[in-house]
From TrEMBL:
It comes from the Archaea. InterPro entries: Beta-lactam-related, Beta-lactam/transpept-like, Beta-lactamase/esterase. GO terms for molecular function: hydrolase activity. The keyword Transcription does not apply. This is Serine hydrolase. It holds the Pfam family Beta-lactamase. Residues 46-64 have a biased composition (Acidic residues). Keywords: Hydrolase. It comes from Natronolimnobius baerhuensis.
Length: 384
């Protein structure tokens, strides 16, 4: 029986051979050591045509360890890190009302004016949707995105409920950073997070002025192996792939979804948080700030035994509750994030493991969760 790294690689390759996706990367740090760095399959076809869907392992451009993939909601912790830096520097506090830094966010004395930075980072702002969520033509215009948030109405009182902010997380965090610093969040993240950590191929939004290749997404028919088809977060898998394969959408300044980069850099990011805000001799955050960020601030059970439990830190999701995409289940202190149908990250204080897994095959939530949990548990069992 294969054990250790061989078993991890075998599980990684079997998902490609089974046709769950056409290309994938897996990177794992243990402490400051990169102990797993796998790449397989293809990132696209040689001629740029659509991915063939009738082959498990089609020919094309080989996936390399530094190939860039769409990160979907794994972008959210990268955006949150910018707020962590500002809090660490004393430029804001997590319990500050957003209007203290962004006066046009809400009318004075309105209930919306009670939304705090903490509410946003824990998905309790009461603003899960905004008018610009599907206005892709506005995604490269920070002014339009900020105006969309200013126009948005509360759907519930801040802090009273938890409702996942698919896009609005990014719009609010992005404009908050711009209001505090005068810089776009992609530029701020580059200077204060990515460059210090050696994340040279990671971006919030595809740079419009650079020749950057990004893995082509393929939207697989939901449950083409078993079960019935259904919608995934309001999209079909094909619609999600078609939308996010567009360069104009990838270039959007969407700090909730349009991150691009390789998994080895995502894993490095999480290894830094596991190490108290320092990696390879470079500190980006104080230990006190990291400790506060990695506390569980929201812990709500499933509603009617459906979906997943809401367990949030300040910008991170936490494992430890069933069902769990990070294991069966993962330890309660496991923090990270997931991305729509195609990616998963987590970090685990108990084992000092930082895990990042990204693929270019968008699948329904159940299939995505199953492949992520299986690979996560394989890594945990073989490296713990």
């Amino acid at each position: 029986m294969l054990r250790g790294l061989e078993r991890i690689e075998g599980q990684f390759q079997s998902q490609l051979e089974d046709g769950l996706h056409h290309g994938a990367q897996l990177a794992v740090y243990q402490g400051e050591d990169l102990v797993v760095d796998l790449a397989g399959g293809i990132t696209g076809t040689e001629d740029g045509d659509d991915m063939p869907m009738d082959e498990s392992e089609p020919d094309g451009v080989d996936t390399e360890s530094d190939s860039r993939f769409v990160l979907f909601s794994n972008t959210k912790p990268l955006a949150a890190a910018c707020v962590h830096v500002l809090a660490d520097e004393g430029a804001l506090e997590f319990d500050d009302p957003i209007v203290e830094h962004w006066p046009d966010f809400a009318d004075e004395d309105s209930e919306k004016a009670e939304v705090t930075v903490r509410h946003v980072l824990t998905h309790q702002s009461g603003i899960p949707e905004t008018p610009v969520d599907q206005a892709y033509e506005d995604w490269t215009d920070p002014d339009a995105l900020g105006a969309g948030v200013e126009e948005a109405d509360l759907e519930f009182s801040p802090g009273e409920e938890t409702s996942y902010q698919f896009y609005s997380f990014g719009w609010i965090v992005g404009e908050l950073v711009r209001q505090v610093t005068g810089e776009r969040i992609d530029d701020f993240a580059r200077e204060h997070v990515f460059e210090p950590l050696g994340m040279d191929r990671t971006h919030i939004g595809r740079p419009a002025d650079e020749d950057v290749d990004v893995a082509t997404l393929a939207g697989f028919e939901p449950y083409d192996r078993v079960g019935e088809a259904g919608l995934m977060a309001g999209y079909t898998t094909a619609e999600a792939a078609e939308t996010y394969n567009q360069e104009a959408v990838q270039e959007g300044l969407n700090p909730a979804w349009t991150g691009i980069g390789p998994t080895r850099e995502l894993a490095r990011f999480y290894a830094c948080y596991l190490n108290g805000g320092e990696f390879d001799g470079t500190r980006i955050l104080s230990e006190d700030t990291v400790e506060e960020v990695l506390e569980v601030h929201v812990d709500e059970p499933l509603e009617a035994d459906l979906g997943t439990a809401d367990r949030y830190g300040l910008g991170f999701q936490f494992g430890g509750a069933l069902p769990d995409r990070r294991g069966v289940p993962s330890p309660e202190g496991t923090f990270g994030h997931g991305g729509l149908g195609s990616s998963m990250t987590w970090a685990e204080p108990e084992t000092d493991l930082a895990f990042a897994y990204v693929v270019n095959g968008v699948r329904d939530g159940y299939e995505h969760n199953a492949r992520s949990a299986i690979l996560s548990e394989t890594v945990r069992s073989e490296l713990s």
